[in-house]
Design a protein that fits this description.
alpha/beta, 9 strands, 266 residues
Length: 266
């Protein structure tokens, strides 16, 4: 089948310069993916990302890598921009990988900055996610992979603006997966912990930190298994289950300790 589990022939990345997304694209191109669309704001970085993927294979086996203008903060343009991609042919996998961390201390004092985080991570994702979900349903197959975060599991003082936006995204993606059940479209939510990327550069590293390559591997394995939720690393599932059920006063004390508030994705 075209979108054999874990080995799609075609890939659309929303957030085309994401290090996790590019690590995933490299992994998939090494196997079976031959058409890649990188959606993002036009920039030298987006062009460089596309060029780096084109160089992975040479000759007739090379992947065709395209860029498409996409702005999470412009939902009114999503249907048109993404519709053009699907009009070019079926897409086996969509990876929703855009997001911003924000600056918690600054954003608490600048509500419009906090709103921008929420609009990017949640509102933009709802718009783009539904647009792609409808296109996948119309073609009758495909996977929508959504990069969430362990930060969305329970709001913490250190990053509750970012965490709340990821909590909304996570709930949306789970509900969308239920809505698409039986349609041939698979939705998978990925919950990484602290990932070493440009996004987290300069932050004190949290426990169980991981890499874009490790997340990419987990995504591929999750697709093969047709998983609905993937934790990276897997140990975080147990850790976050325990934290989620702590009484609130105890939770406050725990997350104010070493690394407690710094579970964020990259």
């Amino acid at each position: 089948m075209k979108d054999a589990f874990g080995a799609p022939q075609s890939l659309l990345v929303l957030g085309g310069t994401s290090e996790i997304a590019l690590a995933t694209a490299r992994r998939l191109i090494a196997r079976r993916t031959r058409t890649v669309w990188l959606a993002g704001r036009p920039s030298p970085a987006l062009d460089a990302a596309a060029a780096s993927l084109r160089e992975l294979r040479a000759g007739p086996d090379a992947a065709a890598v395209h860029t498409v203008p996409f702005d999470a903060l412009d939902p009114a343009a999503h249907e048109d921009a993404l519709g053009k991609v699907f009009a070019e042919g079926d897409i086996d996998m969509v990876l929703l990988a855009f997001g911003v961390l924000g600056d918690q201390a600054h954003d608490e004092q600048a509500p419009l900055a906090a709103v921008r985080v929420a609009q990017t991570n949640y509102t933009g994702a709802v718009s783009a996610g539904l647009t792609c979900a409808n296109a996948l349903r119309a073609q009758g197959h495909g996977s929508l992979v959504v990069l969430s975060s362990v930060a969305g599991e329970r709001a913490r003082r250190a990053n509750f603006i970012y965490g709340s936006s990821k909590a909304g995204l996570d709930a949306f993606a789970q509900g969308l997966g239920d809505a698409l059940h039986g349609t041939g479209v698979h939705v998978m939510v990925v919950r990484p912990g602290f990932v070493r990327t440009r996004m987290t550069a300069g932050l004190a590293e949290a426990p169980l930190a991981t890499t874009p390559e490790a997340v990419a591997y987990a995504i591929e394995q999750g697709l093969r298994r047709r998983s609905e939720t993937v934790w990276v690393p897997g140990t975080l599932r147990v850790v976050m289950s325990a934290l989620r059920h702590l009484p609130r006063p105890l939770f406050r004390r725990c997350v104010s300790g070493a690394g407690g508030g710094r579970f964020v994705d990259g």
